[in-house]
Write a structure and sequence with these properties.
Layout lengths: L2 H15 L2 H19 L4 H20 L1 H6 L8 H17 L4 H29 L4 H22 L18 E3 L15 E3 L2 E3 L1 H17 L3 H11 L1 H6 L4 H27 L1 E3 L8 H10 L9 H25 L5 H25 L4
Antiparallel strand pairs: 1-4, 2-3
Helix pairs in contact: 2-13, 3-8, 3-11, 3-12, 3-13, 5-6, 5-7, 5-11, 6-11, 9-11, 12-13, 12-14, 13-14
């Protein structure tokens, strides 16, 4: 075999190792990038939007790693953690914290709330073993609906948080009133050749991914992975299977609670009521695009999948707005997003069950 043939063979082998979902969505992302350049966008502008969406979504995708590793599958009940993060932010704002202290105090409070609710959710997952992915979405929907009543009844009277007429918190609470918008986004922010880099958000993602990587090299992390791969063998070796699953779901819910703080400051406002309802699906689609399976997920899946999937979502609207001028661009783009997102989840779930065999 000639040297050129060997090189082509190695490149082909490397390409085949890339998960099918990554190849498909990655191909779509590159195609939209090229289309954007054709219609007058600069590469720097499109990559900047991709990095921004990656920075605010990566923590949500990362929250799925512990639940997948423990064998409970992708966390379709991510709204449980999200509503706890929203509650933490609302209480911290009402208490008078602003600026960087809003981020710090909200993060600590959200992690505590998320861990407590994650413990209860973990117990629920242990009670419904084998049906986790069927029960989880409805659990997330139920908690979102329940907190809709909380936002209406919570005794907060801050003029920048409540409705102008009537009782209850607003659907959106702008953070600029509290000097708390873009705190992480503007930390060490820089621009080079038109490329905008929100360093603070990317640093948070890097640290979170590093901590996750290190955790799964500890005794507790290895135990969770063993439970996810083979619970009977893990039990035979003395691992407390139920306890490991509870710890994993506590981590998943707490990370999601923290993730919504990063998300809110990145866009400059807090969204309440129905906002958490379908947040789990894009996060799960992201990690599955990166190559995660039912029992295996790592930070590489999070980084690659979230950047490709959310990058595609970030650039498709402006590019198609120019390419399809005069049409209902928002409707078209939303349909494309839903097809890609739900198609990826359907493909991944089909692969998990191996066609039911």
């Amino acid at each position: 075999m000639t040297e050129l043939a060997q090189e082509r063979f190695s490149l082909l082998s490397l390409f085949k190792k890339i998960p099918f979902s990554t190849r498909v969505v990655g191909g779509l992302y590159l195609a939209v990038l090229v289309l954007g350049v054709v219609f007058g966008f600069s590469i720097a502008t499109l990559i900047s939007a991709s990095l921004h969406f990656f920075g605010v979504w990566a923590i949500f995708a990362l929250a799925n790693v512990p639940s997948i590793q423990s064998g409970t599958g992708p966390n379709f009940a991510l709204p449980i953690g999200i509503v706890n993060g929203l509650l933490a932010m609302v209480l911290v704002l009402a208490a008078g914290f602003t600026g960087i202290w809003f981020i710090i105090v909200s993060s600590v409070t959200a992690l505590v709330f998320g861990s407590l609710s994650g413990y209860l959710y973990g117990r629920l997952m242990n009670a419904v073993k084998g049906s986790e992915m069927a029960i989880a979405p409805y659990t997330g929907f139920a908690i979102t609906a329940a907190f809709g009543l909380v936002w209406l009844a919570i005794p907060i009277n801050h003029p920048n948080m409540v409705f102008f007429l009537g009782d209850g918190l607003r659907h959106q609470i702008p953070l600029d009133y509290f000097g708390a918008n873009f705190i992480l986004a503007e930390f060490l922010y820089f621009e080079v050749f038109g490329l905008e880099v929100r360093t603070g958000e990317l640093l948070v993602v890097f640290v979170a991914c590093l901590l996750m990587y290190l955790f799964f090299r500890t005794k507790a992390g290895i135990a969770i992975s063993a439970v996810g791969r083979n619970p009977l063998f893990a039990k035979a070796t003395g691992i407390n299977v139920d306890r490991s699953r509870v710890i994993a779901n506590m981590m998943s819910t707490a990370i999601a609670a923290f993730g919504v703080i990063v998300y809110a400051q990145g866009f400059g406002f807090i969204q309440l009521y129905d906002f958490p309802m379908f947040m789990a699906f894009p996060a799960i689609a992201g990690i599955l695009v990166g190559g995660a399976s039912k029992q295996r997920a790592n930070v590489t899946n999070v980084v690659v999948g979230t950047f490709v999937f959310q990058g595609l979502i970030a650039i498709v609207l402006p590019v198609f707005s120019r390419a399809l001028a005069g049409t209902d661009v928002a409707g078209v783009v939303n349909q494309i997003r839903m097809v890609v997102q739900n198609g990826i989840i359907l493909y991944a779930l089909a692969q998990m069950s191996k066609g039911g065999k």
